[in-house]
Amino acid sequence: MNGQFQDLMKITRPHRILKQMGNSDSLERCRDKEYFQNYKKDITYKFNTHGYRDDEWPIDLENVVWCVGDSATLGTALPFEDTWPQVLQKKIKKRCLNIGQEGTSNDTIRLRAEFIDKRYKPTNIIIMWSYLSRRRKNGIDMHYDRYDFGIEEDLKNFSHNFSQVEKLNSNIIHLFGSGMVLDLKKINHDMLVYFFTKLNLPGKDHVKKLNFFTLVDLARDGMHAGCITNQNICDAIKNQLKK
Fold it and tell me: What CA–CA distance (Å, rounded) separates 65 from 226?
């Protein structure tokens, strides 16, 4: 494993990262304390030797599905078996690797997808994009307030990452939560196509490839997607995977 892989892909201290990025899965930081306290399922966080919330990866990575994203992919405030990569793995009966990191930016997500595509040449990479206001600066993912850039700059940054990923050889499946654009209460394909076209952004011809999902239930923190939502997400993914 070379240094580039370690720098980009390996998270050496996942528990510290969860704490630093403001993990919402605690009674103090959750949105609804009563909901948190009444949540019935047990939740534990275990990380593999690469630093991801996943079982150890197989030696042969030729026939796996790569699932790249932020805390929604990691499965913050959910039992491990209810994370969407685990749900998908059961549905398609193929190993799905969880490359989810708390608080990661779309810049980092794009870099990881490019690295995976170049090194492993997988058939499928699934990306769950993160909040548009986040940025990667000096190799570190930063939680910028949305007003530091504004929606136009956020969309330009996202369009760059999106269009670069669209150039990869792998089949890319894009997931996009309605809350990822913080300035817009309700976002859909038509609105995103409008903004991409108005701003003449790269990727405007491919925006409709984004799979939007709606939160129909919530994880323990009252913020992240719940297990039913993840089931719905994986049903949509299953129909788009290339064999």
Answer: 22
- Cα separation of 170 and 185, whole Å? 32
What residues contact residue 104 under an 8 Å CB cut-off, 6+ apart? 69, 70, 130, 134, 141
User: Is there a contact between 158 and 132 (Cβ–Cβ < 8 Å)?
Assistant: yes
What are φ and ψ of residue 55, in 5° steps?
-70, 170
Structural domains of the chain, ranges and CATH numbers in brackets: 3-238 (3.40.50.1110)
Write the CB contacts of 57 (distance below 8 Å, at least 6 apart in sequence).
Answer: 48, 50, 64, 97
Nearest to 226 by CA among 31, 14, 96: 31
Cβ-based neighbour number of residue 36 at 10 Å: 20
Which amino acid makes up residue 145?
D
Q: Do 241 and 173 meet the contact criterion of CB atoms below 8 Å apart?
A: yes
The H-or-E segment that residue 92 falls in is helix 84-92
* Average of per-residue pLDDT values in the chain: 87
**pLDDT at 23 (0 to 100):** 78
What's the pLDDT tens digit per position in 93-138? 999 999 999 999 999 999 999 999 999 999 999 999 998 889 998 8
- Which pLDDT belongs to residue 3? 47
What percentage of the chain carries pLDDT values higher than 70?
87
List the one residue out of 130, 205, 116 whose CA is nearest residue 169.
116
Mean pLDDT of 205-226: 89
- C-beta neighbour count of 230 within 10 angstroms: 25
Token pair in block for residue 15? 């528990």
The span from the CA of 194 to the CA of 203, in Å, is 12
